């Protein structure tokens, strides 16, 4: 298979972690005879600095004419005080989502067995947890009308949803639930919000076409609590933009590090893969950022295009790195491995798991470095 992949590394640690995902895909291409053509483009703060806009036309045109997009991270604190919100780095991502028609952000939450003790939650609570959050990303308060008065003393963000916006992501979520444990939880605030009441109405109607899937409703405040005290009860969570943003980051504590969680954003003809962590500028160019989320994004990309064996090979390599403690310091404060070394190990394992170029005996006692 030949795939053209747009690479939008962005800001902060974005370029470092996305490089490791590219290494993994290159290794897959060698082993399985696929060709992945990468083309880099600017987005976020680096794009503002070089072009004056967070989403250059050249970047958008590339993304509109590519098979998939690998996205790193955007943001830079120096733009926090910029009065013109159109120049803020995050606008690059938001505008890209709109332009590509991306509407469903899919975030799998499943802890690694070898990392269960890293979570602040008790092992008995998180062991066996395995669910997916479907977050709508094209509507709600992030994209609706925004106002602020001349004095800057009164502001509003309209939260607005249409039936069509709810319908299209709901079908995706229900079809996914059919392939899993056949349970879907709609998270909303229907006790107060009209938009949430519309979500309940539409999703209830759609559920009639999926009689094999159990549908339940959960208010967002209760959902925030249940994700922490009993995450194993969930299978597929469906929710709107703002709630999904908050809950998916909260759920990262289950895995022990936000640096482990990937996501996919789907549209009718475009697909974008990104780690859910931010740009973390304080870690920039220090070779300490966890690349696993970005590498798992590569696995999700492969799976999206039906390359299931190849995808499993990437997951296997990630699991082996974790098993052998070839991880960054956020997972093991005594680790001698950095971003590049973890990426090298994983790509090398994909190339040949029986010909690893590190001293395996010493890795088990935490003394080895890549050689």
Automatic annotation (TrEMBL):
One of its GO terms (biological process) is L-leucine biosynthetic process. It catalyses: (2R,3S)-3-isopropylmalate + NAD(+) = 4-methyl-2-oxopentanoate + CO2 + NADH. GO terms for cellular component: cytosol. Transmembrane segments: none annotated. Pathway: Amino-acid biosynthesis; L-leucine biosynthesis; L-leucine from 3-methyl-2-oxobutanoate: step 3/4. Its EC number is 1.1.1.85. InterPro entries: IsoCit/isopropylmalate_DH_CS, IsoPropMal-DH-like_dom, Isopropylmalate_DH. PROSITE patterns: IDH_IMDH (PS00470). Its cofactor is Mg(2+); Mn(2+). This is 3-isopropylmalate dehydrogenase. The keyword tRNA processing does not apply. Keywords: Amino-acid biosynthesis, Branched-chain amino acid biosynthesis, Leucine biosynthesis, Magnesium, Manganese, Metal-binding, NAD, Oxidoreductase. The keyword DNA repair does not apply. Pfam families: Iso_dh (PF00180). Residues 4-346 form the Isopropylmalate dehydrogenase-like domain. Catalyzes the oxidation of 3-carboxy-2-hydroxy-4-methylpentanoate (3-isopropylmalate) to 3-carboxy-4-methyl-2-oxopentanoate. The product decarboxylates to 4-methyl-2 oxopentanoate. Homodimer.
